[in-house]
Amino acid sequence: MVRCLSGVGQLRFFITIFCIFFIFSSAYAQDTDAPDEQPPLSLESELVVVEELWQTSADEEIEEAPSTALALPPPLEPPPLRSVSLMLDWYLSPQHAALIVAKERGLFIAQGLDVELQTPADPSVAIKLLSAGEVDLALTRQPLLHLFAHHGAPITRVATLIETPLTAVIVKGTAQPENATHLAGLHYGYSTQEGADILIRELVPRSVRQTDGFLTPQSVHFNAVSAMDGGDIDAIADGFYHSLPQALAANGIATHTLHYAELGVPRHDGLVMIANSNSLAKHGETWSRVIIAVEEASDWIVNNPEAAWTLLVETHPILDNASNVAAWPDIQRRMALSPAALDTRRYGAFETYLLHKGLTDAVLPVSRVAVDLFTP
């Protein structure tokens, strides 16, 4: 009896446990019903981000990404300019227009150069200072270049500023019927070796120079007006024909001009830029940049002659005089538009001329006296 009751109790116990398990299983199944099916993702699907992913702790600082730089970078400093000293052949004049324009319009600076134009106290010292390395570049005339090169000066032409001579023989009075005989008996003055060694030899034959009555040519120390005004000098062998006749006329002295071509002197460059040949390879790239600036200036002058003249006289009022105003159109026509270009025939012909006249003992190769830095 007791065992029966015990068996019935166990049965009730198992039934109770089963009912409890069934009830909890049903509740769990209801809570875990599968959600509704979602459509497949595509480019048009909306992106949903769980909000909890954007939450930060109270101790964290939120850094905002800048949309632009917070501060502009410091400006780049331009590279330092290369200083270049260039000594003129004499006092400043319109023949130096390309250099003045290149400096005043910032063309040298655009090439990374700070060019200083120096005026010599004596034109004869420019080549000497260049040979000694005291200046970087200098200006001279082609005949002087040849003469000094034959005397061993380490100089080389690197550019041409004026393509034809600017000097000539300036003679008092008018031309005479027997002008050659008249010229042979004059007392000559000169400013450079060009006049003393080349022109006077052409004007005065050897037979006359060897006579007792021959008047030894005299250096006028670059003051031709005073020398001719004083009455001692009859002619200047190498005077600037754009300015000297006008200056003498102002003093009541009439003159006439003999251009070198009339005397058989070969055509040559009137104004050239020269460099020290010993350092040419080292500084050739810098001199090339100087020439580029000069070429740009020459082109601007030709295209804007009136504006160029205004620039010259505004920056250098000393140039504003009647003589320079009259000379300006002619000087423009003689300016080299390709300063670096080298006429090897012209330089070779001048070397041959000097040899035939007995002024030199040999012919120097053109490469010794002139180069084109832009030709390999």
From TrEMBL:
Transmembrane segments: none annotated. InterPro entries: NMT1/THI5 (IPR027939), SsuA/THI5 (IPR015168). One of its GO terms (biological process) is thiamine biosynthetic process. It comes from Vreelandella songnenensis. PANTHER family: 4-AMINO-5-HYDROXYMETHYL-2-METHYLPYRIMIDINE PHOSPHATE SYNTHASE THI11-RELATED (PTHR31528), THIAMINE BIOSYNTHESIS PROTEIN HI_0357-RELATED (PTHR31528:SF3). Residues 94-308 form the SsuA/THI5-like domain. This is Putative hydroxymethylpyrimidine transport system substrate-binding protein. Keywords: Signal. Residues 1-29 form the signal peptide. Pfam families: NMT1.
